[in-house]
């Protein structure tokens, strides 16, 4: 018997293969339903112009009821963007990956939201608690309980997944 998670991921993967990804987002690897990799770059003028980052999505059996574990890949030759909501270990403080996750969101909707978060950045810097957090952070970013107190970024990331993106990339609205 196929799990809800596997069926949902198969549907999302088929949509990506048939329709492609939005501009600046590319599927790199989706060999199974546990880990997917995407590259993401901000298009147009931004602080991140000509920079490409790799996002890793890890799914558990509760997806899409529970959010995927999403982080920027930090390995030799790859680094996380310098951003007020991105830690140097690749963990991302974004409400849609935590308490504002909704099962109607898809992998592509998350990618577009993170792309928009980067595009809206006005100043490159790490979170103020970066060093302390990275030193004690769990391997899985979902085990962190982030405090979302910066309305500028939190509300922006939620608002940027607009109705047209949700209707195109969210399951159940096709």
Describe the structure.
The chain is an alpha+beta fold and 174 residues long. Helix content is 30%, strand content 12%. It has helices spanning 4-19, 107-119, 130-136, 151-159, 163-169; strands at residues 25-29, 35-40, 53-58, 69-72. It has a four-stranded antiparallel β-sheet with strand order 1-2-3-4. Strand 1 and strand 2 (35-40) form a beta hairpin. Helix 2 packs across helix 4. The longest helix has 16 residues, at 4-19. The radius of gyration is 15 Å and the shape is globular. Mean pLDDT is 84; it is low at 151-174.
Question: How is the secondary structure organized here?
Answer:
Layout: H1 4-19, E1 25-29, E2 35-40, E3 53-58, E4 69-72, H2 107-119, H3 130-136, H4 151-159, H5 163-169
Helix pairs in contact: 2-4
Number of strands: 4
The proportion of residues in beta strands is 5-15%
Q: Can you tell me the residue ranges where pLDDT is under 50 for at least 5 consecutive residues?
A: 151-174
Shape: globular
Individual helix count: 5
What structural category characterises the helix and strand content?
alpha+beta
The helix content is 25-40%
Give the strand line-up of the largest sheet. 1-2-3-4
Quaternary status: single chain
- What is the ordering of alpha helices and beta strands? HEEEEHHHH
